[in-house]
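Morning F.,

Quick status update on the modeling queue. The single chain you submitted on Monday has been processed. Sequence for confirmation:
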Amino acid sequence: MVILQLGPQAAEKSISLEAPEIDDTYVRAEPDLLQLVLRNLLTNAIKFSHPGGTVKVQLEKTGAHCLIKVIDNGVGIPVPQQQRLFTHQTHALSGTRQERGAGLGLFLCREFMERQGGTIAFNSTEGQGSTFWISLPRSA
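Structure tokens below.
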């Protein structure tokens, strides 16, 4: 659902959105909070990707948890910014087409994930892109 909503935004920048087929994977999560987190991660990936780039969503089942990854080949995150990313001390940065944001989205995503018994993390290389992932407990 979130991917369909953001399709037009990606298309404006000629960004390819790739996502797995939906299967029978279930996680323990509040659906609205999970959608907010995924929307924020995908919006950021699109915002910080160059026109013609790619944003991928991957799903991995790891024991009792499920990882949902959002991978982009965009601008990456400068190391000084990485240290403040999930805090309220982060500063809003402009996207590749000067898209603006408030700079609080990832701080809120961390809060939302923790309230659901999940986690959020990332790795990023400036100039090469970022991978953000959330981990949630799987349900039977």
